[in-house]
Specification:
2 helices; mainly alpha; about 70 residues; elongated
Length: about 70
């Protein structure tokens, strides 16, 4: 495996880790919104959709790039 591909894999795993932290922050924000009685629109609320997308992409990055040697 080339050095450039190894670098891509490592950056992908770093991004997945950053997305995990962003998901934690998004969950905290959503909790604060609920505590403040701010309404949620339901399943199509952007806070819910963004969180789902971040989780899905982090999982995708790990599935593809950890197999290729990007793990820490």
């Amino acid at each position: 495996m080339s050095k450039k591909l190894i670098a891509v894999n490592k950056k992908a795993i770093a991004l997945a880790n950053a997305l995990d932290k962003a998901c934690d922050a998004m969950n905290a924000f959503s909790s604060a919104c609920r505590d403040a009685d701010l309404p949620f629109k339901g399943a199509d609320d952007s806070r819910i959709l963004l969180l789902q997308d971040m989780v899905e992409y982090a999982n995708y990055l790990r599935a593809v790039h950890e197999k290729q040697g990007g793990g820490a």
